[in-house]
User: What shape does this take?
Amino acid sequence: RLAHTVHRGGRAGTGRAGPGKVSVEVLEHLEHLALVDFRDSEGVERLQKAIQFADQLHEVNTDGVEPMDSVLEDRWCLYLREDDVTEGNCTKELLENARETVEEYFVAPPVNLLSGGESKPLSHS
Assistant: This one.
């Protein structure tokens, strides 16, 4: 795997390494998705601990364990109700107000972008 070598206060190069390491590209993608700044040691340490915890799952022996679709799959019914429209029924009119739609869904702009297109990290105070 490509690894991200982290130094206190910043980022360094990439190279091959074992479990718990992340490529620079993946790290930047995670920053964008999670709105967390991994340029400081606290953010990087939090990410490394999460990866180490997740890596433990690779050591679990799942031989003979059938995959599950749901943790509730032993129930014969998941208690889903019909989605009945009781008033309104104005989907077409509502979607006409949207700037962008896909099928019958609104497309929302990314909330983690500033007007210049750069990521805005959350502060954890």
About this structure: The helical segments are 24-34, 41-55, 91-96. The first strand starts at residue 2 and ends at 7. The radius of gyration is 22 Å.
